[in-house]
Design brief:
single chain; 197 residues; mainly alpha; Tetracycline Repressor, domain 2; elongated; HTH_TetR; DNA-binding; TetR family transcriptional regulator
């Protein structure tokens, strides 16, 4: 009984250690690939502070790692969407919260912009839900906070283009993330508000 308990604890510790190592590799891949899409697995292993052999134990091929990065990205995007509470407040308020939550994804955003194929991965189509976004925009049209002439599909493009502009500006100019986000939110606010006449 006692031996079994020790074995169970040991198995949990090993499982937890494996999960942490896998997560470290994925995080390193996101950071490295966001700056250099042609980075080698060796560079990613170095950034994750693991050996190349260890990386291969978790991801045998580069394609396996990229698929896992796509799934991790979809999961993080889904979590950010949940944090934005799209069903609360006016449509415009929810849209701005969503923009801020996405902006906080950091290197993942850079990777999305530099690797468009990532968003074509099946993981994104199953994890990233558009229904809530459409409902949020419809609510914004109804409550008067979003210009009814702007369809949800257009606003989705506007959101992503502003996120791209914000991250590009942040990279090219010596400003803080807070300042860049403020510019993005101000621009988005003015873009979606109804115009008289």
């Amino acid at each position: 009984m006692y031996v079994g308990s020790l074995f169970d604890v040991s198995s949990r510790d090993e499982s937890g250690s494996r999960a942490r190592t896998r997560q470290a590799i994925l995080q390193a891949a996101i950071e490295v690939l966001s700056r250099n899409q042609t980075a080698s697995l060796g560079e990613i292993a170095t950034a994750a502070q693991v050996g190349r052999t260890t990386l291969h134990r978790y991801f045998a091929e580069r394609s396996d790692l990229l698929a896992a990065v796509a799934a991790e990205g979809a999961s993080r995007l889904n979590e950010a969407t949940t944090r934005a509470r799209l069903a609360e407040g006016t449509g415009a308020e929810a849209l701005l919260r969503l923009c801020a939550a996405y902006f906080d994804l950091g290197d993942l955003l850079s990777l999305v912009f530099s690797e468009p194929a990532l968003v074509n991965d099946p993981a994104w189509s199953t994890e990233v839900c558009d229904d809530d976004f459409h409902a949020m925009v419809a609510r914004g049209h109804a409550d008067g906070s979003i210009d009814p002439a702007l369809p949800a599909t257009w606003l989705q493009s506007v959101l992503w283009s502003q996120l791209y502009a914000g991250w590009s500006y942040l990279t090219d100019h010596q400003i803080s993330r807070h300042e860049a986000l403020a510019l993005v939110l101000r621009t988005l606010t003015n873009a979606v508000k109804p115009h008289p006449g």
